[in-house]
């Protein structure tokens, strides 16, 4: 039997295909999250008996509960079947969700959310396993950011999908004969029952989720075609170690490992912040009645995020080649600063009650515009890319003997943060998010520094021991 390919070109191919698979399935998931609550709200307005108006939030909360449960078992499944096939299975789960919007049914909706949650756990376990089995210590930071930058193109594609579908199928609101500067502003007595927020037509919904389903199928094909052989000197080999139950016990003990407890704040803030940016803030934009003329906000917002994510991923890739451990303290500082800046921009420009109901309230300083929403997206994308890069690298290095468990626990704690947020979303005002998550980010940065420094010292000690053995 020949040795696995060890060329840098082979590693790049694996990173590119992993990134493209991420792109394919996340076109559907991330894009759907941007508009899910608004879409559900629109369906409920036309057919109140079909589905609850807050099913968008509650469905995602259910999804994250299954995500947490899946995270407990996904390392054991990875140990049994390997990273490639776990990625294929996860893509199938992702494809099941958009199908439900061709025949909206509350029971199938929640079932597909449960399936999506389990698939989400499988995907990120497979993603981490595939990356560590197709990277060396020298290339892990670069490969992570290459795959991430390709995957984040999904946000730019999402922008194009939203713009195209909106231009073809968007139905004018019942009050489109008014403008913000005419009857609406002069007649505040017009209630929300007469003046509506951004709504999605049935045709618009079917076109959007049809494209999302097609993208998920493309992801299945991509993962089937992805190379399966490990590189030599990889961080983690793809081979079965121990039993299913033994792997599960390792996951349970890793839950209370010192490093994982310190990183809890980073993992959980990734859950709360990503849920806010993917679902709650886009819903707030759509529920702000003053934005009724800006029908392309759903296209501009992911475009900004995608540009920010890709720019920062390429920047981190270059900096990681020049400076070892750039994905530790430097990237964490950048991620925290840019994320808090994005929350501040939302805080001053968005009505406080817009996350949970249509509103005509004024923003703190000024309202939204296409350019400002684009700027928020770019700022968010830069911060989010840094934080996710830190998470991917620290999980690969902080627990060398239990890497699969580290990746799984990171997602379990992330899902816990998301689940908590979505269950409370129908009642939490905007300012609780913007201030609370910003404080959470600062705490996460402090504890991340502690773990990063200990990991660096551990690696330095291991390198010295290897040199002494060679002598």
TrEMBL record:
Database matches in Pfam families: UNC-93 (PF05978)
Organism per entry: Caenorhabditis briggsae
Protein name in UniProt: UNC93-like protein MFSD11
Signal peptide: none
Domain of life: Eukaryota
Family according to the record: Belongs to the unc-93 family.
Gene Ontology, cellular component aspect: membrane
Compartment annotation: Membrane
Bilayer topology: Multi-pass membrane protein
Keyword field: Membrane, Transmembrane, Transmembrane helix
Transmembrane domains' residue ranges: 12-29, 57-78, 85-102, 108-125, 146-169, 207-226, 263-282, 294-316, 328-350, 370-394, 406-424, 430-452
């Amino acid at each position: 039997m020949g040795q696995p390919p060890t060329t840098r070109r082979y590693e790049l191919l694996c990173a590119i295909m992993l990134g493209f698979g991420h792109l394919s399935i996340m076109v559907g998931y991330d894009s759907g999250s941007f508009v899910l609550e608004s879409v559900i709200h629109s369906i409920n307005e036309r057919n109140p008996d079909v589905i609850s108006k807050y099913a968008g939030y509650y469905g995602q909360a259910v999804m994250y509960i299954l995500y947490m449960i899946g995270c407990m078992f996904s390392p054991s499944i990875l140990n049994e079947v390997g990273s490639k096939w776990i990625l294929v299975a996860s893509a199938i789960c992702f494809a099941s969700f958009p199908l439900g919007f061709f025949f909206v049914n509350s029971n199938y909706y929640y079932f597909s959310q449960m399936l999506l949650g389990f698939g989400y756990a499988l995907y990120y376990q497979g993603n981490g396993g595939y990356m560590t089995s197709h990277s060396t210590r020298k290339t892990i930071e670069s490969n992570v950011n290459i795959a991430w930058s390709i995957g984040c193109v999904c946000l730019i594609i999402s922008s194009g999908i939203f713009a195209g579908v909106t231009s073809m199928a968007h139905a004018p609101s019942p009050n489109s004969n008014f403008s913000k500067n005419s009857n609406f502003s002069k007649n505040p007595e017009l209630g929300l029952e007469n003046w509506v927020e951004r709504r999605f037509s049935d045709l618009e919904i079917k076109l959007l989720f049809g494209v999302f389903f097609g993208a998920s199928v493309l992801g299945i094909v991509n993962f089937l075609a992805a190379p399966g052989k490990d590189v030599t000197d990889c961080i983690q080999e793809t081979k079965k170690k121990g039993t299913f139950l033994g792997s599960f016990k390792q996951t349970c003990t890793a839950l209370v490992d010192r490093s994982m407890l310190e990183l809890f704040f980073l993992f959980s803030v990734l859950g709360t912040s990503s849920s806010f940016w993917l679902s709650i803030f886009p819903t707030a934009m759509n529920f702000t009645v003053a934005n009724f003329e800006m029908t392309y906000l759903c296209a501009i917002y992911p475009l900004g995020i995608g540009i920010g994510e890709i720019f920062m991923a390429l920047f981190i890739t270059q900096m990681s080649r020049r400076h070892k451990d750039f994905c530790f303290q430097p990237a964490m500082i950048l991620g925290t600063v840019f994320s808090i800046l994005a929350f501040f921009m939302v805080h001053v420009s968005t009505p406080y009650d817009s996350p949970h109901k249509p509103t005509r309230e004024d923003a703190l300083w000024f309202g939204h515009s296409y350019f400002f929403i684009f700027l928020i997206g770019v700022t968010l994308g830069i911060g989010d890319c840094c934080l996710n890069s830190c998470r991917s690298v620290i999980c690969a290095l902080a627990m060398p003997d239990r890497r699969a468990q580290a990746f799984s626990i990171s997602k379990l704690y992330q899902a816990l943060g998301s689940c908590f947020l979505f269950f409370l979303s129908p009642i939490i005002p905007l300012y609780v998010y913007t201030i609370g998550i910003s404080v959470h980010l600062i705490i996460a940065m402090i504890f991340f520094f502690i773990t990063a420094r200990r990991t660096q010292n551990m690696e330095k000690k291991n390198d010295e021991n290897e040199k002494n053995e060679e002598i």
